[in-house]
Each structure stands twice: as structure tokens, then as C-alpha cells.
Amino acid sequence: MMHMTFYWGYKVTLLIDSWKTRSWTGYALSLLACLLVSAFYQYLENRRIRLKLILSSKPSQTLQIRTPLLQSNLDGEKARLGVKLAGAILFGVNSAIGYLLMLAIMSFNGGVFIAIVVGLAIGYFFFSSEGEDVSVVVDNSCACS
Predict the structure, then answer these.
(1) How many alpha carbons fall within 13 Å on the CB side of residue 68?
(2) Which of 31, 58, 72, 85 has minimal Cβ neighbours within 10 Å of its Cβ?
């Protein structure tokens, strides 16, 4: 039976029926996986924001962003289309990860909830750049961040 309130215990089913934890070791590994995936979510979000900055920046502002492979190619329309396509792919992957994290939280296990929130905070701490939150308004349909 699915829990409809938060509970604390090591027996949890995450996302699919075959991902069930039956021991403390399996539970700890599942929490570690949730933490790492949520930190990776923040990493991908940072990459997507940087691509959006590159796409919206003027050529003189491009030098401030450390992207040596993309700086010389931003003048052409093909390169801008490639950056826009990469941003769209990153958005799709990041949205999928965000919704999977939301579904994992909907297992209503307190440990899973804490692992995901701590992973998001750790990812934000390590992967967010100073000033990027002010310079870009990000349209994010995911409720995870």
C-alpha cells in the first residue's frame, strides 16, 4: 500500500516496483543515488543557464563567459541554432530529471525527501555561479527549483 503521509523507515519503493529497499544498506545506497541525481540536476540547470547566457549575450559580453569552444563561432546563425538546440535538449533532460525527483519525493519517505533537498542544496552550492541569477530570468516549468 502506498503511503499518503510522511513516514520514516528503510522499506521504500522508489519510482518503479523493482526499486524496493529491504535493508538499511539498500536504503542508504538509494538515498545516496537520490542525493547524487539531485546534485546532477543542479549541474545541468547551471549548464542550461550558461547556454542561455551565451545565446542572449552580445559578442562583447561573450568574453566574460568561459566557453572557449563556442566563443569564436557565435557570429554565425548555425552556431546560434546549435546553442539553442543544445539548450532545448538540456531543458528536456533537466525537466525529466526534475519530474523523476518529484515522483521520488512522492514516495513520502522522510529520508528520500531529505536526501533530495540536501542534494539540490549541495548542487546549488557547487554549481551556481555568482551573478547569474540576477542577469537571467529563467523560465523553468519544473517545480523542483
Answers:
(1) 0
(2) 58
Q: What is the pLDDT of residues 15-24, one digit of tens each?
A: 898 999 999 9
User: SS3 for the chain, per residue?
Assistant: CCCCCCECCCCCECCCCCCECCCHHHHHHHHHHHHHHHHHHHHHHHHHHHHHHHHHCCCCCHHHCCCHHHHCCCCCHHHHHHHHHHHHHHHHHHHHHHHHHHHHHCCCEHHHHHHHHHHHHHHHHHHCCCCHHHHCCCCCCCCCC
Sign of the alpha-carbon torsion through 139, 38, 96, 62: positive
CA distance 95 to 73: 28
Residue type (1 letter), 45 = E
Residue 127: closest CA among 47, 69, 38: 47
Q: For residue range 60-81, what is the model confidence (pLDDT) as tens digits?
A: 444 445 555 555 544 567 777 8
Instruction: Report how far residue 31's alpha carbon sits from residue 9's, in angstroms, rounded to the nearest whole number.
Output: 12
Place of cell 529563467: 138
Neighbours of 44 (CB within 10 A): 18
